[in-house]
Amino acid sequence: MKTLNDFNFENKKALIRVDFNVPLNENFEVTDSTRIVSAKPTIIKILEDGGSCILMSHLGRPKGRQDEFSLRHIAETVEEIIGVKVIFVDDCVGEKAEKAAANLQPGELLLLENLRFHKEEEAGDVAFAKQLSNLGDIYVNDAFGTAHRAHASTTIIAQFFEGKKCFGNLLAQEIESIKKVMETGEKPVLAILGGAKVSSKITIIENILDAVDHLIIGGGMAFTFVKAQGGKIGNSICEDDKMDLALDILKQAKQKGVQVHIPVDTIAADAFSNDANTQTVDINAIPDGWEGVDAGPKSIAQFHDVVMQCKTILWNGPLGVFEMESFANGTIELGNSIAEATANGAFSLVGGGDSVAAVKQFGFEEKVSYVSTGGGAMLESLEGKTLPGIAAILQ
Ligand code: AMP
Predict the structure, then answer these.
(1) For binding substrate, which residues are annotated in this chain's numbering (predicted)?
(2) Pocket lining for ligand 1, CB < 6 angstroms
(3) Which CATH number fits domain 174-382: 3.40.50.1260, 3.40.50.300, 3.40.30.10, 2.40.240.20?
């Protein structure tokens, strides 16, 4: 696996695919700069080597050239975070971009206009990728968030940099973190899968059974498993057509020696509302008219014990309807347990969608080992797929 350390960037122009798809407010100010901060180590390493950086990214989903999606809006924030003046060019290919790239001196930073102003980007157009490739000497992919897309700048472009392409620090870290969970992590390995639907996580569960010793199934997903085993789940969220599959997963887990932990109790609410009446009940005896919305105290204690036993922990999906304050406790307590295990030396990876939002919202970001920057890319990796953006660097 080629990384930045395999190259000396002195007098080289690094063409870096970053993920600067950051949220902007109505005044076009960046409201969350995490993704820019995450790309900083790669950029700094190249500049310190004596190279220059050409940054390319998409922003939002523009239909052609639309000023509201211009990367010009983020240039100032990039400049502040990296601490180097940003030269902005209002296209990513063509004469202007080529001239700006040709004039770039060591230590300088060039930001290209939104790649998706050209429809060829998402189409994975080879000629467009070739045009982009003309701008730099070495191609660096540091955008995990788009690594599952075979777009021109994330995948197709790599073929024009034979022997001159590598992963940036961020992408290398993402790959390493997933590898720890799936292959090289210290045992016991635990995966915690929560969230709303079994259907969106089936492939992950099936793939992950070969890698883990323990599996916690929580959140709304758990009720399909509970009902499938004959439990009464009241109005709780359930996918009836996935009950056979749930039983099959439990069977597979047993065969593979994976210990599956399903909540034993739940906070039940009489409405899907923060102000609903609640009661704590056994998970398989939820009264009619009530629905399970959060993990109960016995389940929280049980999950705490499992988490504390494990040395490698993956967390994907909340344990309850954490967006409502009244039902966030299970998710927060799980975060606390993972933070404690991490402080005791376990490796913890949080990734894929809502658990990342929960971790940020409840302040666990600094207390876990790694928070993934890619939602869909993370989920596809856990499904065992080789992401096209990663494969293109390895080829
Ligand atoms: P996912 O995107 O699959 O990770 O699902 C996240 C969503 O699952 C969040 O919006 C949660 O509110 C929701 N969720 C978690 N637990 C429950 C539950 N017991 N009932 C309904 N929704 C839930």
Answers:
(1) 19-21, 35, 58-61, 116, 149
(2) 195-197, 200, 219-220, 237, 292-293, 317-318, 320-321, 323, 353-354
(3) 3.40.50.1260
